[in-house]
Design a protein that fits this description.
237 residues; alpha/beta; Elongation Factor Tu (Ef-tu), domain 3; Rossmann fold; 2 domains; 6-stranded antiparallel sheet; 6-stranded parallel sheet; binds flavin-adenine dinucleotide
Amino acid sequence: MALARIHADVAAVRSLTEDVRELTLALTEPSTIDFCAGQYLHLLIPAPQPGQRPLKRAYSICSSPSERGRITLLANLVKGGPGSAYFFSLKAGDQVKLDGPTGQFVLDQKTARDYLFIAMGTGIAPIKSMIIHLCEQNSRRPMQLCWGLRSQRDSYYQELFHALAAEHPEFSYAPTLSQPTDGWDGLRGRVTHILPDLIHTVANLEVYLCGSQHMIADVKAILRTKGLCPIHTEKFY
Ligand SMILES: Cc1cc2nc3c(=O)[nH]c(=O)nc-3n(C[C@H](O)[C@H](O)[C@H](O)COP(=O)(O)OP(=O)(O)OC[C@H]3O[C@@H](n4cnc5c(N)ncnc54)[C@H](O)[C@@H]3O)c2cc1C
């Protein structure tokens, strides 16, 4: 089935780090959408050259489903990539077209298992939507976020997740930096490095993984050594 076409205005652009940007889109037609936390939209990329075809790139919705008329998307700059170059070229007031929402990377709220969210870089986008949604619902299921970033300079949304963890006792947050600079007293190493010590059993876990295919394969292999549990994945590349 064809996805619905969405028209939106860029309402705000935030540079979160040197190579990560967040767009806030105000939907114009339709003026609201319904989506499940974790779903994504296809952003239409105008043809780079005359005579070439327009492109589409998937971007996960980073904001909560409760914000139906204003959504945020998050992207990192990929060298030579037309999609991220377009994303980074957008300014407040620009008009964009998207198709969707779509995707199966959504919360299973039927089981009573604890949530373990593992994200690499901008793989936080769908997971942020899920965590905010669960907090808004006052979910009582314990949830832990393990997010791998490079260094303090490459970190963002830290205040948000620390504030959510302070407000919601069932939510715990463990950022880990692979290349921390001086003064970092948190976890060190990639998520695959810290996971074996962080998780002792998966018996009561429901896991959500988002990032590169290598990260997903490596994390799955580590989790399998701890037993079997449902694992949901979203592969960005
Ligand atoms: C379901 C889904 C949801 C996605 N959601 C997001 C999102 O929320 N935020 C986001 O930044 N990206 C997301 N992506 C990736 C995004 O769709 C594009 O692939 C990405 O922006 C690069 O597009 P490009 O045209 O600039 O580069 P391309 O020409 O498509 O790719 C160039 C090269 O970069 C690699 N690459 C692709 N994405 C990345 C990346 N993020 N980091 C490093 N290397 C990469 C590709 O494997 C390829 O080798 C998602 C992908 C999928 C399938």
